[in-house]
Design goal:
Elements (H helix, E strand, L loop, with lengths): L2 E2 L2 E2 L2 E4 L6 E2 L1 H15 L3 H7 L5 H8 L6 H13 L6 E2 L3 H6 L6 E4 L4 H10 L7 E3 L12 H10 L6 E5 L2 H10 L2 E5 L10 E3 L4
Parallel strand pairs: 3-6, 3-8, 6-7, 8-9, 9-10
Antiparallel strand pairs: 1-2, 4-5
Length: about 200
């Protein structure tokens, strides 16, 4: 069983963007371009989109005249075509290397194609269990993704530790019944069981 801060867990469940890798340069370029094209307030958009599926964000901010499917596809293609500046979170490579294949999974709001491209760009391994936007009916903050990951690993969710960095992700992890380690500074440290500045 993997251990974190001397506590054993059945498995670790990781969010991807902001938790395993930093894709903020790409996200900002793509989404700010989209927001400016459609007159969306950029500060409000950036404050609320982190950790949420692209389609859900587009649906929230698109005006009544916009085609949600078309705009979501535009975002998807723009993100797939841009990997400049994607880097691993400090220390994560060594952290993951210590884990067995059945010890961990990724639960991301990204599509399978985008997750694969970003993990490879950051030179991080693809896990045996990778839950993406296509695998769930409801994205974060719904806990469906984390529950599905635990099920595919064959472990109980209340014996898992989730590593998350976004309000939507933390809400999903808590709703699932897992323990939560907060990564980075987007969520107050006291929202989780642990606070993790980095993996070193």
């Amino acid at each position: 069983m993997p251990h974190f801060r001397s506590q054993p867990y059945a498995a670790f469940l990781f969010d991807m963007d902001g938790t395993l890798l930093d894709s903020s340069a790409v996200v900002n370029r793509v989404w700010l371009t989209w927001a400016r094209r459609h007159g969306v307030d950029t500060q409000t958009l950036l404050a609320s989109m982190h950790g949420v599926r692209a389609a859900d964000t587009v649906r929230r901010f698109a005006g009544p005249t916009l085609d949600i499917a078309h705009e979501t596809e535009w975002i998807a293609q723009a993100e797939l075509n841009d990997i400049e500046g994607i880097v691993p979170i400090e220390g994560i490579g060594t952290f993951i290397q210590r884990l067995e294949p059945n010890d961990w999974a990724i639960v991301t709001s990204a599509s399978l194609e985008l997750a694969t491209i970003r993990l490879r760009a950051a030179k991080l391994p693809l896990p045996r269990v990778l839950i993406t936007a296509e695998d769930v009916r409801r994205g974060k903050p719904d806990p469906e993704g984390f529950l599905l990951a635990a099920d595919r690993l064959g472990v109980r969710i209340d014996q898992c530790l989730v590593f998350e960095d976004s309000p939507a992700g933390v809400a999903a992890a808590k709703a699932s019944g897992a323990h939560v380690a907060i990564v980075g500074g987007h969520v107050p440290a006291n929202e989780g069981n642990f606070a993790l500045p980095n993996y070193l």
